[in-house]
Amino acid sequence: MPGPSLVWFRDDLRLADNPALRAAIHRGEPIIGLYVLDEESRGIRPLGGAAKWWLHHSLASLGERISERGSILVLRRGPAAAVVRDIAAATGAGAVFWNRRYGGAEREVDTEIKTVLRHDGLEVDSFAASLLFEPWTVQTGAGTPYSVFTPFWRACQSMPAPRAPLPEPREVPGPSTPPASDDFDAWQLLPTEPDWAEGLRDTWEPGEPAARARLRAFLEDDLGAYDRARDEPAAGVTSGLSPRLRWGELSPHQVWHETVAHRGSGAHAASAQRFLSELGWREFAAYTLFSAPDLATKNWRSEFDAFPWPRLNRSHLTAWQRGRTGVPLVDAGMRELWHTGVMHNRVRMVVGSFLVKNLLIDWRHGEQWFWDTLVDADAASNPFNWQWVAGSGADAAPYFRIFNPELQAKKFDPHGEYVKRWAPEYSAGEDPQPIVDLGETRRAALDAYDAVKRSR
């Protein structure tokens, strides 16, 4: 049927390599962009504070870019099934396009909307945009999901190469009478009382143009050292792309193909291969979420339901959250997180291990804190990585792997540069006592994990 095309943006806040937008342009009718802030549909997890900050600025950037090309980004708040149907009816839309999501609640919402809109006579289609490989296309020889990363990634690499990115449209033709949009400021995505986002503003510029500039800078300046220095938190050779991918300001296809183009040979090629495997780890997290939609709340390995968590020590949890544990590398990491909304990956493993295996605090408390404070908080990667550290997840770290934060600091921050930047009191001669004894708590953790083994 004729009528404008509705493009429902979600975790794909970009114009380039956006298959849903490309389908709408090919259809040839006016285009209306739509973003729905859905905190009401059953099972949809509300965003954390740092993620809301990023979303505000990324949406503002996307709205400006769509407007420059002739169309509009409509903002609405409410349950997505009702909002999308209402907008489609009010505008006389003939088609609705979106890019797929892979969480269980999100898939249920999308299936409901697709069914209802098709019943209403609209053309509806969804597209692969946020993953290199659709989860259902990668299976073991027995037809089951992979539970270990290496064979999963090997299977992915044996498949046809990821498709080439789609070009950015020069024009996005808009409707003659656009629908009303919510008052953006009324969404209150930015913190005000207090305004704790100064560090985020100092660190980031959300939006597609900045994301593409960051990718180019990383490939040109840092990729060559990635394999050698990626574990050194003071080295500054991480890509900085995790929030860009989480919000879809870049697609993994763009990152993949531009990295391959910069791959070169020798050490540079090894660094590129290592970096591409990090994209693979992101894929594996989403792949696991697809088959285990309760990943943020339930142990992937059911035997860990028997883990004897002690009663929550709230003072220990608060000390960890605030970076006041008396352990330099842990405190530096937690303060970096609070200031910038991210944390170096090596340090994430250390602070996660310290919470779960030295403080014996359930990994779900850490996952929730990261969900609220990370700008790249992702429904797949965040719980997946926490379960990896805890030992309860897919391809998890062995239960006996307890990261010693002192040894990790000596190995990866030997000159104390990272700790000096984020927890300078330790470099100034202050020596706060750790809130727990690392050796004693390590032994207690191993005893608890042995209890899980005996319960099988």
From TrEMBL:
Domain Photolyase/cryptochrome alpha/beta: 3-132
Coiled coil: none
InterPro entries: Crypto/Photolyase_FAD-like_sf (IPR036134), Crypto/Photolyase_N_sf (IPR036155), Cryptochr/Photolyase_FAD-bd (IPR005101), Cryptochrome/DNA_photolyase_1 (IPR002081), DNA_photolyase_1_CS_C (IPR018394), DNA_photolyase_N (IPR006050), Rossmann-like_a/b/a_fold (IPR014729)
Protein name: Deoxyribodipyrimidine photo-lyase
Manganese in keyword set: no
Listed Pfam families: DNA_photolyase, FAD_binding_7
Chain segments carrying region Disordered: 160-181
Organism: Microbacterium terricola
Signal peptide from the UniProt entry: none
UniProt record similarity statement: Belongs to the DNA photolyase family.
Protein's UniProt keywords contain Flavoprotein: yes
Keywords recorded for this protein, A-Z: Chromophore, FAD, Flavoprotein
Cofactor: FAD
